[in-house]
Specification:
Strand content: 5-15%
Shape: globular
Structural class: alpha/beta
Number of helices: 14
Number of strands: 8
CATH topology of the largest domain: TIM Barrel
CATH class of the largest domain: Alpha Beta
Strand order of the largest sheet: 1-2-3-4-5-6-7-8
Bound molecules: flavin mononucleotide
Length: 321
């Protein structure tokens, strides 16, 4: 058993989920400017190849670019040496905790025994943790699915994790091959919770402001909640969870959209990149509009800023005060 101490037990925290291509620094900072209710974010994964980290990822993770929301950078790796090297670089720039991705479901990742591809191999996870934990200066948490192929793979992984002083284990109760289909397997999550000696955070399908309370009622021992798609679709969600009297303020939403768009226009070059980014956001954001399919279809077809701007005006038409 390693000797590092766990964090002090924290009150129920709400985390912004890592979503590659969406919840990078631009989104996190703009979100914090307009909305409340999220206490911390985990960054989308950073691959550690030979201990190298791309300039784009360094910039996104630098503390000076993440002043508005506390951040835990996430690493995707099966290579202990590369992991240790990047983790210690992140510690040197000021991060006290990093997160290890054991959930990424994409075949390109999982076939290389990374992300959820490691879950069928608890002994590899054990070796990895045993070799990295005493070499990294920061604390470590894990984000995982139930398994790659089977929801009970996790039942052999949790006893391994229990041996290490991890700060928390975030569980998204689906398998990798399930991707995002079906519902989170709450019965299996319950088994994980009873097996785990580590703080557990629940993640998956928190979409409505009553969902967090229902999860907490059923699983009173969880130490936090993580929300991804629900926040992207409705950035007011965390505020609504804290105060059910909060209503969607369309003017605030439009201002948020405009600022996000402006920030992407400042850092990305050309309409292709900027609109590509905004279209990804609209896959979620459009869900809050009555005519969501038509709006999304129209936005997806735009290829110039002029077309995009007029689609956005049309989308918000009738909602603004
Ligand atoms: C487009 C997209 C990108 C994602 N990127 C990451 C990632 O980089 N790291 C990670 O651990 N999970 C990633 N996830 C998974 C989410 O963090 C989260 O576990 C999942 O969406 C379930 O939570 P939700 O129902 O609240 O969205 C991603 C999910 C989506 C849809």
């Amino acid at each position: 058993m390693h000797k590092k101490k766990r964090h002090l037990k924290f009150a129920m925290k709400r985390y912004l989920a890592p979503m590659r291509g969406l919840t990078e620094a631009v989104y996190r900072n703009t979100f914090s400017q307009y909305f409340k209710g999220i206490h911390m974010a985990i960054s989308p994964f950073i691959s550690t190849v030979n201990g190298k980290i791309s300039n784009r990822h360094i910039k996104d993770a630098l503390p000076q670019n993440n002043q508005s929301m506390p951040l835990i950078p996430q690493l995707l790796s099966k290579d202990p040496a590369g992991f240790v090297c990047v983790a210690n670089k992140l510690f040197d720039v000021g991060y006290l905790e990093i997160n290890w991705n054991l959930g990424c479901p994409y075949a390109m990742v999982a076939n290389k025994v990374r992300g959820c591809g490691l879950l069928p191999y608890p002994e590899m996870i054990d070796q990895f943790l045993d070799s990295v934990l005493h070499k990294i200066s920061c604390q470590l948490s894990i984000k995982m699915r139930l398994g790659r192929f089977q929801p009970d793979e996790i039942l052999s992984v949790i006893p391994v994790l229990n041996q290490y002083p991890l700060t928390m284990v975030i569980i998204h109760p689906r398998t990798g091959i399930q991707m995002y289909d079906g519902s989170p397997d709450l019965a299996q999550f319950e088994k994980c919770l009873s097996l785990s000696k580590l703080p557990v955070i629940y993640n998956g399908d928190i979409q409505h402001y009553t969902d967090q309370a229902n999860i907490c009622k059923r699983f009173p021992s969880i130490e936090g909640i993580m929300i991804g798609r629900g926040i992207l679709a409705n950035p007011f969600l965390a505020e609504m969870i804290d105060d059910p009297n909060v209503h969607k303020d369309w003017n605030r939403l439009k201002d948020f959209h405009d600022e996000l768009y402006c920030q992407y226009r400042n850092i990305l070059s050309g309409p292709g990149h900027v609109l590509g980014k905004m279209k990804e956001h609209w896959k979620y954001l459009s869900q809050g509009f009555d005519d969501c399919h038509r709006i999304l279809k129209r936005i997806q077809r735009t290829s110039s800023f002029r077309q995009y701007d007029s689609c956005v005006v049309e989308a918000f038409d009738g909602y603004l005060r």
